[in-house]
């Protein structure tokens, strides 16, 4: 008798998990509280997969032997709590899919920089000729990729805290922890320790045969290290100190040092600039060294990487005013790095769904660099209160077109209009990609 699996959520990861589960002989049922997008509904129908949309039917779900839950569904949801009470295992798509491949896993998490770092690692490994996949919180789901081709050498996985929360037996061969700064605290009872613990799940089940790469400059990571016994081989990276094993900055170069075997790249030659991208490059370079890729090839790949859409992406210069799309900056720390990386006067577009933000961390930087703030959201009260008196001009907008127009009018030749929201996008947009695309469209229409 086949094992019954229920998939909650019919997006990319859910449908990927359904296809893989069916291929592995499970009896599959997919349930989505919302209307399923046509592209995914078509796949479910064509593959003969049972599903429902617009609500959950308890009778069809509570008889599952295992449930794969979308990371977007909080643990506090009544259905999730009922499943846990009944003792039915709930796992993430990553936890489920990983059992069906022998590939190595390079896993990246952090409050900021994980997408860029994951894509940079993928760029280097694929550039070196490895048969590598890129999945997790980015692109095509891991389950779908294993369904299509289970024979890859390795997967680079960008993992959110929500995905990590649903992972129990999974193990990263190489774990990368970029940073831990306040984010998604609304999902963690507004307790920073809960969020830190979630991020450190990246190293669960690691042995001394595995590697843990992390930022030694991050105080929350350093605190977390002291609270844990780390089994894996540790390879830190840092700005301010030379390291015997890991990566660091010296004489305007990033130095990678693995037990005295060193290589370096000049920071000014990197296509992606800014302190945050130096950290991303340090992490990616250490991973490349662990794969024993030839040094000239590592250097070539690190220098040729052009960055990620919606992350400090230059859009256009309009009559001397430069527009930069940083829509992916959905938290305070990410926006801090964006402001820090710009040396011109900034007209800053910010706002959206606040996830428990403390804007005090941005006040000093904003006071030095921001000449005007355009608050874009359905409720801008907290932003207005936080920056009134710090930024000379603060205005509101209720649409992207209005925000771009106001920002442009406030700018002078040589200024930069920066969309770096520090908030989630769900009040006015589908997601940060939708927000970023609309920003670019509105800029092109000026």
UniProtKB/TrEMBL annotation:
It catalyses: UDP-N-acetyl-alpha-D-muramoyl-L-alanine + D-glutamate + ATP = UDP-N-acetyl-alpha-D-muramoyl-L-alanyl-D-glutamate + ADP + phosphate + H(+). Coiled coil: none annotated. It comes from the Bacteria. Residues 108-287 form the Mur ligase central domain. Residues 310-423 form the Mur ligase C-terminal domain. ATP binds at residues 110-116. Signal peptide: none annotated. It is an enzyme of class 6 (ligase). GO terms for biological process: cell division; cell wall organization; peptidoglycan biosynthetic process; regulation of cell shape. The keyword Cell cycle applies. Cell wall formation. Catalyzes the addition of glutamate to the nucleotide precursor UDP-N-acetylmuramoyl-L-alanine (UMA). This is UDP-N-acetylmuramoylalanine--D-glutamate ligase. The gene is murD.
């Amino acid at each position: 008798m086949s094992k019954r699996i229920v998939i909650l959520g019919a997006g990319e990861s859910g449908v990927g998990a359904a296809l893989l589960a069916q291929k592995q002989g499970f009896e599959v049922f997919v349930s989505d509280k919302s209307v399923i997008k046509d592209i995914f509904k078509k796949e479910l129908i064509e593959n003969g997969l049972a599903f429902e949309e617009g609500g959950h039917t308890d009778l069809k779900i509570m008889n599952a032997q295992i449930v794969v839950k979308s990371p977007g569904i909080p643990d506090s949801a009544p259905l999730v709590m009922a499943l846990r009470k009944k003792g039915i295992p709930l796992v993430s798509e990553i936890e489920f899919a990983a059992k069906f491949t022998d590939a190595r896993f390079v896993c990246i998490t952090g409050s900021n920089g994980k997408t860029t770092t994951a894509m940079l690692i993928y760029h280097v490994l694929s550039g070196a000729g490895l048969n590598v996949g890129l999945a997790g919180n980015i692109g095509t789901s891991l389950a779908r990729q294993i369904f299509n081709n289970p024979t890859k050498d390795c997967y680079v996985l960008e993992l959110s805290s929500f995905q990590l929360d649903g992972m129990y037996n999974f193990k990263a061969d190489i774990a990368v922890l970029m940073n831990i700064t306040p984010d998604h605290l609304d999902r963690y009872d507004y307790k920073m320790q809960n969020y830190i613990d979630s991020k450190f799940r990246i190293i669960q089940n690691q042995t001394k045969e595995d590697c843990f790469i992390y930022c030694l400059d991050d105080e929350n990571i350093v605190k977390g290290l002291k609270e844990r016994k780390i089994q894996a081989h540790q390879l830190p990276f840092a700005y301010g100190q030379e390291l015997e094993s890991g990566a660091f900055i010296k004489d305007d170069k990033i130095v990678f040092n693995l037990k005295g075997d060193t290589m370096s790249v000049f920071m000014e030659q990197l296509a992606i600039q800014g302190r945050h991208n130096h950290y991303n490059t340090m992490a990616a370079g250490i991973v490349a060294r662990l794969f024993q890729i030839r040094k000239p090839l590592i250097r070539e790949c690190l220098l040729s990487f052009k960055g990620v859409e919606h992350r400090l992406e230059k859009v256009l210069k309009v009559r001397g005013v430069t527009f930069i799309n940083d829509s992916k900056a959905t938290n305070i720390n990410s926006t801090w790095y964006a402001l820090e990386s710009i040396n011109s006067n900034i007209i800053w577009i910010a706002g959206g769904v606040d996830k428990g933000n403390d804007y005090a961390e941005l006040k000093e930087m904003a006071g030095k660099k921001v000449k005007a703030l355009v608050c874009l959201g359905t409720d801008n009260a907290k932003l207005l209160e936080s920056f009134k008196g710090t930024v000379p001009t603060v205005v509101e907008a209720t649409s992207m077109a209005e925000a771009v127009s106001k920002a442009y009018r406030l700018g002078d030749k040589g200024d930069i209009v920066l969309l770096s929201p520090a908030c989630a996008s769900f009040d006015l947009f589908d997601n940060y990609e939708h927000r970023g695309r609309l920003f670019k469209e509105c800029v092109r229409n000026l």
